[in-house]
Amino acid sequence: MNGDDRTLLLDLENLLGNVRQRPRPLRARLEAVLAAAGQIHHAVAAYALPDSDTIDPLASMLAELRIGPLRVLPGADAAEHALLAHARYVHTEGGRIFVVGSADGRFAELAELGRVELVVWEGQPVAAKLTKVVHDIHRLPRRPAGTPTEDTAEEPKPVPSAPQVLAEPPQDGPRPTGRLLAALVTGIGIAAGQRLFDALLPRPKR
Question: Strand pairing of 136-140 and 115-121?
Fold first, then answer.
């Protein structure tokens, strides 16, 4: 590494509060931090998760964004210790510029290794001893452009319902065809009865 190479150190708990955010808002915030950091040699992010969390989707997202994941066990200042250890390694390799995504006062120690810059959110309070040693502070809007609301789930698309087929209303009597047939049969029956009646009864003599 060269002395003007810049290393981005992200303390995710301090920068994001909750690392178990939904993927879309988390990605938007990380991309905003990367954009604010500018040209960097590499980036690492430290965060704490217990060993019981065998599935770590955050590590996959960080790798996709080309941020080295430094997962540590939960503990006091565990993430800060991991980032400071990485900064000391960078220093031995020649790096002298550190861009820190955190407002924690522990990172004031980086002043012994070189130049310190901060990337924090608007209104985020920065530890006094850290403020004294930083050379520049990049403040980002709390909700970067394009960041979706965390508690807003995508509305499911309505499933088109099958067209309803209305049943024919029940008929009170026979259908038109049935009525016509019934009338025809009735007429034939009356005519036949009339002929039989005429044949049986004698006609009056004139």
Answer: parallel
Give the pair of three-digit tokens for residue 3: 């002395």
The CATH number of 6-140 is: 3.40.50.1010
Q: Closest Cα partner for 67 from 39, 42, 33?
A: 42
Tokens, residue 11? 């303390």
Distance CA 95, CA 6 (A): 7
- DSSP strand E in 19-177: where? 42-48, 68-72, 97-101, 115-121, 136-140
Tell me the one-letter amino acid at 140: L
pTM, two decimals, is: 0.69
Averaged pLDDT in 10-residue chunks for the chain of 206 residues: 95 86 89 95 94 84 95 92 98 97 96 96 94 95 64 41 48 49 49 48 50
The domain limits of the chain are 6-140
* 3 state DSSP class of 72: strand
Q: Which residues contact 71 (CB under 8 A, 6 or more apart)?
A: 46, 47, 48, 49, 56, 59
Structure token digits, residue 143: 């909700």
